[in-house]
Amino acid sequence: MKILTKGQYFGNQNSEASFNGVLLSQYTYTGIKTDWHYHENPYFMYVLSGNMKDCNTRLKTLCPSGSLMFNNWQEPHYGSKHSDNASGFHLEFEKNWLKKNKIPLSLLEGSQLIENPRLHFLFAKLYREFLLSDNYSEVSVEVLLLQICETLSNLNKTNTQNNPAWVDGLKELLHYDTAVLSLEYLSNELKVHPVHISRVASKYLSISLGEYIRQHKIKKAIPLLWDASKSLTEITYQVGFSDQSHFNRVFKSYFNMTPSAYRKSLKNF
Length: 269
Prior knowledge:
Keywords: DNA-binding, Transcription, Transcription regulation. GO terms for molecular function: DNA-binding transcription factor activity; sequence-specific DNA binding. InterPro entries: Homeodomain-like_sf, HTH-like, HTH_AraC, HTH_AraC-typ_CS, Tscrpt_reg_AraC-type_HTH. This is Helix-turn-helix transcriptional regulator. The structure is a single chain. The chain is globular, with a radius of gyration of 19 Å. The protein has a six-stranded antiparallel beta sheet with strand order 2-3-10-5-8-11. Strands 7-6-9 form a three-stranded antiparallel beta sheet, with no helix packed on it. About 45% of the residues lie in helices and about 20% in strands. It is an alpha+beta fold. The protein folds into two domains: about 160 residues, Jelly Rolls, CATH 2.60.120.10; about 100 residues, Homeodomain-like (Arc Repressor Mutant, subunit A), CATH 1.10.10.60. The relative contact order is 0.10.
């Protein structure tokens, strides 16, 4: 089976940048299906456009635009493309970087689709810094990388808690359900009293339920902002905000810029 060494991926490389043991790259995916292979280093694939599928011996994962997929360095897999065009942004950690920053390899075990909105925000910021690539990018990238690892560590601690069965159902509803997510709706779906959900949800989500829902709406908005054919008004309603001013305020609270400014900043590259 083929092993892909540092910086090797299937497809055409558009750009690449190295930061002291961490490699960032952007690729256009060209083939319909890759061969089975595994990677020398652990890496993340942030799907920028199109529809991909990542397949390993345990599961097959659909990865539409905006998906964040982690691939473990020890796990064989293959990828397939399910749209005419597809592209992705990669973050690859060399093991020496992890060791230097006292980050255990166990933090990056088990290939998986990452749903946590906080990690998506960090990757969106990392991708913007990768495109910007100015005199301040190196320190900005280093800070974002450490924040990514810290968030992963906190997420792993939360996931290893002895959670009640309804918590997985709650996360699934928050990630995939397109309904208006009221406490009454969640209570009816989960068969759990709304007061109990509101009281303990923050324990299992690490933030309040309302904040998690707002973060998830912004997470869904990010790949839509990459699509120039979609207006800001269309995006506002598609992700579940009642008006554009509310969307602007919430987006700015996480990115320190409006959705319009974020979109324009990407158009410059």
